[in-house]
Each structure stands twice: as C-alpha cells, then as structure tokens.
Write a structure and sequence with these properties.
The complex is a heterodimer of chains A (65) and B (137). Chain A has 65 residues and is mainly alpha-helical. Chain A contains 5 helices and 2 strands. Chain A is globular and about 25 Å long. Classes of the chains: A mainly alpha (65), B mainly alpha (137).
C-alpha cells in the first residue's frame, strides 16, 4: 500500500527516529512503512493520522485492483 | 524495543547461557553417579532452569516489541518451529524404524536448533522488511 508518511514527516522536519518516538515504534518500523514494505495495523494507522492531523485515507492510499 | 532494554536483554541472556554452560560442565555430569532418585532428577534437570529463564526473557522481549518487531519474531518462531519440528519427525520415524540408531539424549539439541533457526530466519526477515542487518530493531 502506498502512503504519504515520508512526505508528511519531512514536512514536519522530523527524522524517522523522532517520528518513531512519537508513535512509540522503532525507526526501522517507520522505514518499513515509508518504503511500503510493511502496512501498519489499523490502530497504528489511526495514530499516524492523528499525529499529522489528517484523515487516514489521505495518508494511506489504496492502490485498488 | 529501546536499545537500553535490548542491551540489558542481551546481557541477561549471556549470563544465563554462561550459567547453563557451567551447569553442563560441572554439575550435570554428577547426575550419572548420583545415589538418590530425587538428587539424580534434580541434577539431570538443573540445566533446564537457566534455559526456562531465557525463554521467559524472550517472551518478555516479544511482548515489549512494536508491531513490526512482533511480526518478525513470530514469523521467525513459526518458521523455526516448522523446520525443527519436521526434522524431529523425520528423525523420530527413522529411529523408530531402527534405520538410525540414536537415543533420547539427542532431544537436548532441539532447543539450540530452534534458537539457531529462529535467529537466522529473523535476520533474513528483518533484512527483507527493513533492509538492515542490525540486530536492534
């Protein structure tokens, strides 16, 4: 699943480690989400959306098949 | 999992494994010549104590991990269980059919084999998901 996490993180000038700290996950997990190798759980996706003040569907983009 | 907690975990496992080795070298051999049955059983099972402690630490580590780390732990653990379990099944059938002569002491190697397979699988999964071989996640 594509997402805008990297774009939003860079907009806030946060490092992956800083974002990880705010979300209570590791830097590696942030990296895996940003590169699309790992899709976060629904609770984590909501946490990310809350942190960036956006709606979940504007951050995580359903490719659709 | 935070680096400080990870470091603490590694030290605890290292100390417990050193205790395990000390027991295997100095204490466990006395089980063969022990007189009372209770003493024999206690000496024979003494290495289980540090190993059980390590298992408890591993469980605690998984519980403290974030969701991706937990996923990697559990995927590695299930892969290791499937591989080692299958190897044990094959070995068991061969031994039962008297194709392969072995005794029960080979079961001692099940847990180390599980740990090794788990470690290698976890590293490869971690590389796949994060592109890093760093043990810290």
């Amino acid at each position: 699943m594509k997402n805008r996490v990297r774009e939003l993180r860079e907009k806030h000038a946060w490092s992956q480690a800083e974002l990880g700290e705010r979300l209570d996950v590791s830097r590696q997990t942030i990296n895996a989400i940003e590169t699309g190798k790992y899709d976060p759980s629904l609770p984590l996706a909501f946490k990310i959306a809350r942190l960036f003040g956006s709606r979940i569907e504007t951050i995580f983009l359903d490719g659709g098949k | 999992m935070a680096h400080s907690l990870e470091r603490r975990y590694r030290w605890q496992v290292l100390v417990l494994m050193a205790i395990y080795m000390a027991i295997m070298i100095w204490l466990w051999p006395h089980a063969l010549g022990a007189s009372g049955k209770a003493l024999k059983v206690a000496l024979a099972l003494s290495p289980v104590v540090p190993v059980a402690w390590v298992i408890a630490l591993m469980a605690k580590r998984v519980m403290r991990s974030d969701e991706l780390e937990q996923r990697l732990h559990l995927m590695a653990l299930s892969t290791a269980t499937a591989l080692v379990g299958t190897a044990c099944l094959v070995g068991g059938f061969l031994a039962a059919a008297k194709v392969w002569a072995t005794d029960g002491s080979i079961l001692i190697w099940v847990f180390p084999a599980l740990c090794c397979t788990y470690g290698v699988t976890r590293m490869s999964l971690k590389y796949r998901y994060t592109g890093s071989l760093d043990w810290f996640c």
